[in-house]
Amino acid sequence: MLLYILKRLVYVTPVAFGVSVVCFLLVHLAPGDPLSAVLPADATQATIDEMRAAYGFDKPLPVQYAIWLWHVLHGDLGISIATGRPVLGEVSRAVVNSLILASVATVIGFTFGTLFGFVAGYHRNSLADRAASALSVFGVSVPHYWLGMVLVIVFSATLGWLPPTGAGPDGSGNWRPDFDHLRYLILPAVTMSVIPMGIIARTVRALVADILSQDFVEALRAKGLDERGVFRHVVRNAAPTALAIMGLQLGYLLGGSILVETVFAWPGTGFLLNAAIFQRDLPLLQGSILVLAMFFVVLNLLVDVMQTALDPRIERA
Amino acid sequence: MLFSLTKFGARLALAGALVVSASTAALAQGTLRIGMTASDIPLTTGQTDNGGEGMRFLGYTVYDGLINWDLSSAELASDLVPGLATSWGVDAADKTKWTFKLRPGVKFHDGSDFSADAVVWNLDKLLKADAPQYDPRQSAQGKTRIPAVASYRVVDPLTVEFITKAPDATLPYQIAWIMMSSPAQWEKLGKSWDAFAKQPSGTGPWKLTLFAPRERAEMVPFKEYWDANRVPKLDKLVLIPLPEANARTAALRSGQVDWIEAPAPDSVASLKGAGFTIVTNAYPHNWTWHLSRVEGSPWNDVRVRKAANLAIDRDGLKELLGGLAIPAKGFMPPGHQWFGHPTFDVKYDPDSARKLLAEAGYSPAKPLKLKVAISASGSGQMQPLPMNEFVQQNLAEVGIQVDYEVVEWNTLINIWRAGAKADISRGVSAINYSYFIQDPFTGFIRHLQCNFAPPNGTNWGYYCDPAMDKLFDQARNAFDKAEQTSVLEKIHEKYVDDALFVMITHDVNPRAMSPKVKGFVQAQNWFQDFSKITIATAGR
């Protein structure tokens, strides 16, 4: 197992390097001038050139990349052009906020997704199956920014029960899991949970249906194992795949849905990316994308390791 | 994980149970919460960013200029008034030498004294790259605002002298941009602008007490403010960045904020129906087509320019915008102090437009074909796509066939800077651009002075008319207020009579607010005064 983990860690290095190259180049390929958004529109060419030199944008791209990578390897993601604040601080704050939101959304999505998946898988073609399947199709199909707006219209604008925007009455700086702050979390978390819920429900339904049709289940029943025991075996067999999907979904949610976080003004990575894109804030964009991409890499690694722990056949393969 | 999931689950259940009974938490009396359109708190160190909105919320609140804008009237176009300077004037013999007399007894929020040394220190912050307090971020915002300034010096503790590069009577308008930060506070905070950003100190009517990047800023009144008349009545002012228009509307409707900037036009009717107040007023903004005057441009023919101006149904456009627009009658909004008496009547007259085009050799059968660059969105651009489609249809009806090059807002800014001849302009013969037109330079000079053609300035279309340049020179040399106004009127008359732009509409700076917001006077300005506002106890 240790050898397997070490091997996977070695594989991560070229992936991380590739990620750094891609995220650096991608933001530079995008049209627009990073200084446009921060300088007054009628700034003189001399001022623009001065700023360009100050941020190193006058250097050739490979040199810019080398300098950036050197700083990144030393834990410095640079300074945001738009705010003048260190990117690392900005991204860390946003990641924590997205982590709060993503965790809750994942818990909601995984709980209901698994529940619907098992119900549908165990009772194929029944009314419960159709209802659970319809809900999961709704989950993966509904545009979640639209759902977010509808929830805001109903629960905030009309009923006035829940706040529509922000992370707390005093911002996210002093976030704590108390009632005042949780109220702000409910609508965005529910909105974000529908996609993982739908995906997990559909996957689990297919898995359960497949597992239940396998010979070993027949054998278990023939051996006299009660349904609870059979259920445990089904769960054990379905868990690695469901876990892998959940890991990926958590990764997506950590990236922060740009649309959902913008609709709810939730100060997470999606909100940050949205601002960085509109302001052409290259250092912030590069830093955020790199951190998020690395999250994916690490999450994939963790999920692989967990899958191997749950199902040793994977390691042997 | 930040907290245990079990505990969290229990709390979530509790939240669910209590949610029905919960309503928006009651706030202390006199707190005004504003949803801004910016995606971040504008720069708090003095020379703020985020354009007009930045100056509105973090410029003229925490800071003062030597000269301020009079924001007390909704009826009159706002003008300059003494700020930290009580008077200013140009030397009778040397028109490049200005003397500013400073207001005595003014203190910064940190308790230190405001003096002539502080003025010079603040100018060095922007203009002197080797000064310890030089701040590239503030410099990038402020340097372009004071192009006339050549040098400055302390004459005595309450007198500062400015020397301009050439005689320039528009200097006071330029100086009104420059905000005064506290040198003592900067020293106290280890000479760090990053630290200063969190605990800024100006002389303005509001003190910043909380700065949470991207989330909120809170201010309380500065009770010792030098102008007793402008000491804020509120207990607190809270600024929240809400860049998404629907999120702003939802925040207002749910009572999370009391005031939002720029509600989406399609939400205005429902907001009014729900009892919210929509406040609008004219202000120095216009939404135009800036025309290329390079060789071969069809706009070099005045008949084409006038025809385009006569082809647009501006009242129909206003209707399209839910009434949130003022149809253009010139380059400046109607009633502006520099409007003058142009003879060309900017109105909807398609028959005259067709006639003029026929004289110029065009007709619906043989249309004039044009390419125009527009943006899909952008600060001050209103609703560029539907509005330009409307204009396109109007022009097609008289025989002008327009194709749009739709570009992203930052790209349009770059096109505007680069000029009509640049490759980036892709051969378009006009750009749809909205302008901040608050002073003689931003209002007139920068668009059309011959030597401001790119790369020296933003005369995008390479317009050059010695007669107009002469008028600009006269404006710069008119040191008497009435005389300057008279020249500026003549400039505006020439703008309109020569139909130098396709003048389409003016924004009305809409903001929606709860009926409990009382005492707000929306000045005809990009900046506003929050001092007189109170929050009523009853109401939504």
UniProtKB/TrEMBL annotation, chain A:
Pfam families: BPD_transp_1, BPD_transp_1_N. Residues 95-307 form the ABC transmembrane type-1 domain. Its main location: membrane. It comes from the Bacteria. InterPro entries: BPD_transp_1_N (IPR045621), MetI-like (IPR000515), MetI-like_sf (IPR035906). It is a multi-pass membrane protein. It is found in: Cell membrane. The keyword Transmembrane helix applies. The chain crosses the membrane at residues 9-30, 99-122, 134-162, 182-201, 242-264, 284-303. Belongs to the binding-protein-dependent transport system permease family. Keywords: Cell membrane, Membrane, Transmembrane, Transmembrane helix, Transport. This is ABC transporter permease. The keyword Transport applies.
